[in-house]
Amino acid sequence: MDDSDLFAAPHRPPCPSRPLLGLTILLVEDSRYACEAMRLMCLRSGARLRRADCLKSARRHLQLYRPSVAVVDLGLPDGSGAGLIEELAKAAPRIGAILGTSGDDLAEGIALAAGADGFLAKPVTSLADFQDRILSLLPEDRRSAVPCRLTDEVIRPDSIAYREDMAHIADVLTKARDERVLDYVTQFAGGVAHSAGDYALAEAARTLARTRARGVPATAAAARLAGLVQNRLDRREAI
């Protein structure tokens, strides 16, 4: 089902203050903090947002409907988002715009090589940049003929979403018995911390990643990361 089919909301044309009205964005993202930022972006822009937190969930969504735009995180709990981007780029009919997203500086090249039309570097905070990026990548027949009134609003999610990510990290670290799981949670923690400006946690994640890359015991570095995460949960503060 296309996002404009009978189960979609009645069509209303975009307007200057809601330039993405009528679009459905599928966000494939495991971070609640990043999802909340995107939810606020879509709310301000008029777009509908659907979320999948892993590749399996995303493919389940895509069996039921075809969104206007897909935004796919490169680091997901069950694999790389690059594979899903490649699938979407080759599918027919094709989604109007496919974007990769990550806080990793090297991820843009991976996303574009997989077939993405563009890339959103985390943190995504500027509403105007978000709207302009989406509109610039859509096919001409899906763009608004009405001039957009892009506002330079900065979007920042509240601390509740960040705490949910901290709880997720703590839970995964407690249960991690597989090196791949530890690598995933290290990447996840670093990405969330980078997006939220939590520099101490971001550095702890980088230290753990470097330690893992050297192939030496990472017990101390993992304990440091876990301690910082628990500190944020105990204080009931995000940053």
UniProtKB/TrEMBL annotation:
Record domain Response regulatory: where: 24-137
UniProt keyword terms in alphabetical order: Phosphoprotein
CDD domains in alphabetical order: REC
SMART domains in alphabetical order: REC
Modification type 4-aspartylphosphate: residues: D73
PROSITE patterns attached to this UniProt entry: RESPONSE_REGULATORY (PS50110)
Name of the protein described by the UniProt record: Response regulator
Organism: Ruegeria sediminis
